[in-house]
Specification:
The chain is of the alpha/beta class and about 180 residues long. It has helices at about 15-30, 115-120, 130-140, 145-155, 160-175, and strands at about 5-10, 35-40, 50-55, 70-75, 95-100, 110-115. The protein has a 6-stranded mixed β-sheet, with helices on one face. Helix 3 (about 130-140) crosses helix 5 (about 160-175). The radius of gyration is 15 Å and the shape is globular.
Length: about 180
């Protein structure tokens, strides 16, 4: 077990990376982990590239800097794979998950697993981040799917049907399980 696990999310503003990072942190917190979640914005406009970060461990998280050597990279918009920042700090052992159909080229020497999250998000492409959350939980081996689904519904349940949200997360989880 790692002392500290670091996740870097790449997306465009409005795609839900910040929200997904926060939901994952909430679910991990409910699972007894020490967590941290925060975004990093460039220009604050819809569609601009952004990064979000999630850190967690069994001991208190004391770092407060950007994630430069991620254990997991999550890309919500496959067009961002051309951005050099996606490969920063990525090594052959780093896991990379991309919201895309088909296959993707390696990133920074790491193999890439694609998740057709937009297809799984039965509430529409705006909930692809929820399907990716399920895939992230499967890739990490935590938090438990039920805990993640509860955190998703608690956070987004007023925006969409709880059943739709739970289903999207379950499909993403099943894809990598």
């Amino acid at each position: 077990m790692r002392e500290l696990t670091e996740i870097r999310w790449h997306a465009r503003a409005g795609q839900g990376a910040k929200t997904a990072s926060q939901i994952l942190a909430l679910a991990l917190l409910r699972s007894g982990k020490s967590v941290q979640s925060f975004p990093e914005y460039g220009p604050e406009r819809r569609g601009a590239p952004l990064r979000a970060y999630t850190r967690y461990g069994v001991k208190p998280v004391r770092r407060h800097d950007s994630v430069t050597e991620p254990n997991l990279v999550v890309v919500l918009d496959s067009s961002l794979l051309a951005d050099e920042s996606v490969a920063e700090g990525v090594e052959p052992g780093t896991e990379v998950l991309v919201n895309a159909d088909g296959e993707a080229k390696p990133v920074g020497g790491a193999s890439v697993r694609t998740v057709p999250a937009g297809r799984f998000a039965s509430g529409g492409a705006s909930f692809a981040n929820v399907a990716m959350l399920g895939a992230v939980a499967a890739a990490l081996g935590e938090p438990p799917l039920q805990t993640l689904q509860d955190a998703i519904v608690d956070t987004l349940g007023s925006k969409s049907s709880p059943d739709t949200l739970r289903a999207a997360a379950a499909e993403g989880f099943a894809w990598l399980s």
